[in-house]
Amino acid sequence: MELLFLGTGAGVPAKERNVSSIALQLLEERGATWLFDCGEATQHQILHTSIRPRRIENIFITHLHGDHIFGLPGLLGSRSFQGGDTPLTIYGPKGIQAFIEISLSISCTRLKYDLQVVEIEEGTIFEDERFLVIAKQLDHGIPSYGFRVVEKDLPGTLLVDKLKALGIRPGPIYQQIKLGKTVQLDDGTVIDGRDFVGPPQKGRIVAILGDTRYCEASVELAKEADVLVHEATFAAEDSALAHDYFHSTAVQAAEVAKLAGVKRLILTHISSRYQGTLSEELLEQARELFPNTELASDFSSFIIPRKK
């Protein structure tokens, strides 16, 4: 599991930072990539990475401001032109379907894959046997959502040495034992598979929030997450501006991380007024309150290891 930042700027593209898009790489877990937001030129940013558009399985849109969605039509069209034929689902606020349909219709773009658009409300918006995604509305000028991505707990590892000590050789029986089933051996001995499986591996939690002022929903989404990705559009001394424009400061992001008990905070969505070393001040401000904070730049990569 890896977070790869394709765009970390706020509002408009800048020389150092493109507008918002984050890839959650789930290549080992499901052979797929999930995108969170798709600002202008996201597909150009992808060209500088190992991401394959045909592997993009889900796109989660936090809100409908242009710096978070203007890259969608181009990416969807290019995915088709480049041979992508697997289904793709887009989750986003009400209005996202009309934006996509009109953009593709007017440009006469025909997709060669199945595209599903789900207009979301609060609650569980995605679930399968491996992952769960919960959405909550944040505090922004228009409906803006945060997402809590939960990896479900994995079965414990098979205690192979313990099995071999009993003379149980590898084979199909190992799969039955790993599933915790009661198994009868060739000599008539009956064993409980649960006795030969280690404790479950705890799943990881990633919270990725859209544009927002400080709010309780942010804390709820981030509770005990392994990683929180939070906007830090403004510095602490510009808190009045942050409030007026429905954004957060780096310090407010750190407050959310601390209250939620997260393990790691990553700042993104940085205003272009903080170029070069000025952006490092945002990092320093956040670290005063929450030391395990990092500042994302375009193409920053963060591995999220499994819990031990």
Note the topology.
Elements: E1 2-7, E2 21-26, H1 27-30, E3 32-36, H2 42-46, E4 56-60, H3 66-69, H4 72-81, E5 88-92, H5 96-106, E6 115-119, E7 123-127, E8 131-137, E9 145-151, H6 160-165, H7 172-178, E10 182-184, E11 190-192, E12 205-209, H8 216-222, E13 227-231, H9 239-244, H10 250-260, E14 265-268, H11 278-289, E15 293-295, E16 301-303
Parallel strand pairs: 3-4, 4-5, 5-6, 12-13, 13-14, 14-15
Antiparallel strand pairs: 1-2, 1-16, 2-3, 7-8, 8-9, 9-12, 10-11
Gist?
This protein has eleven helices and 16 strands.
Chain oligomer state: single chain
What general form does the structure show? globular
Structural class: alpha/beta
Provide the succession of SSEs.
EEHEHEHHEHEEEEHHEEEHEHHEHEE
Description of the structure:
The structure is a single chain. The strands form three sheets. The chain has a seven-stranded mixed β-sheet with strand order 6-5-4-3-2-1-16. The chain has 308 residues and is α/β, with parallel strands linked by helices. Helix 10 runs parallel beside helix 11. The protein contains eleven helices and 16 strands. It is globular, with a radius of gyration of 22 Å.
